[in-house]
Amino acid sequence: MTDSRPAAVIVLAAGEGTRMRSARTPKVLHELLGRTMLGHVVAANRALEPDHLVVVVGHAREQVQQYLADLDADVTTVVQEPQNGTGHAVQVALAELPELTGTVVVVLGDAPLLTTATLRDLLEVHRRTGAATTVLSAVVDDATGYGRVVRDVAGAVVSIVEHRDADDAVRAISEINSGVFAFDSARLREALAQLTTDNVQGELYLTDVVGLHRSAGHVVSAHVAAAAYEVMGVNDRVQLSQARRLLNDRVVAEHQRAGVTVLDPQTTWIDVQVRIEADATLHPGCQLHGSTTVAAGAVVGPDTTLVDTEVGPDATVLRAHCVGAVIGQAAAVGPYTYLRPGTRLGRAAKAGGFVEIKASTLGEGSKVPHLSYVGDAVIGARSNIGAATVVVNYDGRDKHRTTIGDDVRVGSDTMLVAPVSVGDGAYTAAGSVITEDVPAGALGVGRARQRNIDGWVARRRGTSTDPANQGDEQP
After folding, report:
1. Number of CB atoms found within 10 A of residue 463's CB
2. Which of 62, 119, 174, 234 is most buried, by the most CB atoms less than 10 A from its CB?
């Protein structure tokens, strides 16, 4: 371990978060851009490669612990019960760890905007100054509710005073405590043993460690975050939406700087795990979620949602909703298209307007141009599926497969009643209900013979051109 790699990171995530007004979701598990708040904090600190990463839980502990077990198997969780302040939370965490040598980082579980880069800067200041405590601070326009960083005339940190315990002079200070600290592990243990509950809340404040270290003659330093918004905590849903906007602005800007064209950043939302290659283009109204990837030259949007979807090079996706789909190179999707999980479009394939495809493969150059449903099917190369075609894949109990070969022409308004296959080069007549296999090169016809009844209109409805007879009655 080096000074740039902490001995431990302790994440404080035990609070109830009553201002979120949620009976279902613990505060730290509310999501923004594809991760929970706690997930963002864990990811930023995991990149520091600490020897131990500990999350202190309390409220809804079973739910939070299960989430963490699924997220990162190497995270240790400890329960703070009762919850007697931030100092007590750190005491509980250290009690579960072996004797440490080096730096302990303490962060809050509701600060999803904090970056690894800022944490590394904090650690560098801590190392360079040889401090017992280094606080991450920020200068803000409105410090209401935050603890203030109090400095002496020389600029050295003297103490941190919580807002509720501060007098008017201290409340006038604009430098705030973010709740993020780097501590010398041995001196942290010494100071924690000296904490008292002599404050308005009657709790053990971690911030009192600053004053104790100062009184003991140890160095106390501070690193002022370059971007004050990084230390923003989230306490209600208004702040959650503000944090989501700030994070999205950052993510979109990162993609733009990497060569992605984003025409309207304000209406483009990109989850943190989405990957987009340079020279891709996103039009207004796009939402990219989950594990979505977009390759170079692809054009997405406007008004498109992609969830866990792969978009190949030079593909176009216009006004579509795609979930768990693979869109091949130079393929075209939309407008008003729904690609459901398991859909795979081959190179230069097309899923056109008002088309829904589910668990199906569309081969190279094949087209489903408009007004059709394809489910549980395999379609070969260069085939064309006529308008209003429906693959009838469900019999009310089971799903069945349909196979369509290469160079097939399925006529408009065809019902393909699965299980059924249409061989290479075959055709189906428009308006057919296909219930039996169509051999290669054959024409499948499955419709009743038309008959015309001469004189029917005059006998049943009078003169058809008389406006008085233009009612809604159907034959």
Report:
1. 9
2. 234
